[in-house]
Amino acid sequence: MAPVNRVFAAQLAGLPVFGPDGESIGKVRDLVAGLRLDQQPPRVLGLVVELGTRHRVFVPMLRVTSIEPNAVTLATGTVNMRRFHRRPNEVLVLGQLTDAHAYLRETGTRLNVVDAAMEPTRTRDWLLTKVAVRERTGRIGLARRSSLRILPWTDIAGLGLTDVSGQPQGAGQLLMLFDTMRPVDIAATVRDLPVKRRHEVAESMDDERLADVLEELPEDDQKELLAHLPEERAADILEAMNPDDAADLLAELAPADRRRLLELMEPEESEPLRRLLTYSSDTAGGLMTPEPVVLTPDATVAEALAHIRNTDLPAALATMVFVCRPPTATPTGRYVGCVHFQRLLREPPAELVAGVVDTDLPALRPSAPLSEVARYFAAYNLACGPVVDAEDHLLGAVTVDDVLDHLLPEDWRETGLHDLAANEAP
User: Fold this and answer.
1) Which of 211, 221, 299, 357 satisfies CB 3.0 to 4.6 Å to 295 for a cystine?
2) Is the pLDDT score of 88 beyond 70?
3) In the predicted model, what is the mean pLDDT of the chain?
4) What is the mean pLDDT of residues 190-219?
């Protein structure tokens, strides 16, 4: 059978859903699409399927293997039984878009949405590309005799995250939507906002959330947002950022601005940044974070596991625990070695980390150039590596994500991040 190229939501409503062996699962009740701030077609995230018990569940589109005129087939007969709840950044195509009011972007003609169609991409995604509409006339709304028109999604305003004028919704509504999104996806969205709305969103975000988003923005956008904030709050944001990211941002500022912000920060927060700023950004010292997991030799495996379970710890840093003589704050006492998290999982909880430490893994010197750091990670298959000075003091740790960040072209966040967040085919 030829592949389906376009499917209207109304055609799917009520279709039976089967597993790969023909077992009946339920019926399609709606489509779930992810809202966007720009004018591009939103991605269809999945189906709302009603089971025989009238219990409604969500089935991701990647689980759908075929859509035919009389049935939908899934790749597996097993579905997540959690009851479906729509998230703030999602829209139900039949339940919310149908009968919604919209506008023709070029002329402002008032429209009523009758249906919407999705089309597959080469990446196996489905995009909501077409909208079936009728013109609205008079005070009573829909003109019964107006002709049905099929228009590209990009020709329609007033749907999704934009208001009826085609402008992004207010900061309050956007912040509600951002609650369910990853910082990298929020950053891609924020870059599409008008400057005024971007500033409103930044002013309304809490410090921790804004710090996470700022880390995912290109340098020019970071500097622009930081410059907009009052200096006291800008200093608070820098304190909430990962130290290596904060140091990278400070390095891009004018010396006077950098000095003023460092003075506004708490001394215990600014001192690690001052140390990082002494290294070139393309060396191990400039790439490292000064806050890895550091324990003394008499710590137990159970204590080490408790540290790496910390949900605030970046995933790459959680792959390795560094064992040092006191003090444990960087720069530490004498560096003993490291313990890989897989080793911790295999050892008795009461075992001391001194008994399982890896003393054979070489350490990076802070002056090591980016090319050497990249070869080091490739050679030893690491996600995290120690940076040690000539006197065997642990200065920090480099993580593989920071290495990739510096190996990619300077504009990768502008050209790649938005495409990744949009998840569209070229």
Assistant:
1) 299
2) no
3) 86
4) 87
**Domain of residue 15, residue span:** 7-94
Q: Do both 269 and 299 map to the same domain?
A: no
Contacts (Cβ under 8 Å, ≥6 apart) of 298: 352, 354
Provide the β-strand partners of residue 242.
Answer: none
Question: What's this model's pTM, rounded to 2 decimal places?
Answer: 0.61
Residues 6+ apart with CB under 8 A from 188: 216, 417, 418, 420, 421, 422
Which residue is it, tokens 């802070």? Answer: 366
Domain boundary among 222, 245, 278: 278
CA 253 to chain centre: 26
Q: Is a pLDDT exceeding 80 seen at residue 84? A: yes
pLDDT tops 70 at residue 145: no
Structure tokens at 179: 């609650």
Burial class (CB in 10 A: 0-12, 13-18, 19+), 395: buried
Contact 305, 349 (CB under 8 A): yes
Backbone angle region of 302, left / alpha / beta, with phi > 0 → left and psi within -120 to 50 → alpha: alpha
Local structure of 157: helix, strand or coil: strand
Cβ neighbors of 382 (< 8 A, separation 6 or more) are: 319, 320, 376, 400
Q: What is the DSSP letter of 353?
A: G
Task: Domain count for the chain, please give it.
Answer: 3
Confidence of residue 165 (pLDDT cuts 50, 70, 90): very low
Locate the DSSP E strands across 56-189.
56-60, 64-68, 71-74, 90-92, 101-104, 110-120, 126-135, 149-152, 156-157
- Taking only the tens place, the pLDDT of each residue in 342-352 is 999 999 999 99
CB atoms closer than 10 angstroms to residue 416: 13
Residues 178 and 75 in one domain: no
For residue 224, what are its two tokens? 């622009």
Res 139: pLDDT: 52
Residues 242 and 320 in one domain: no
Residue indicated by tokens 């919604």: 100
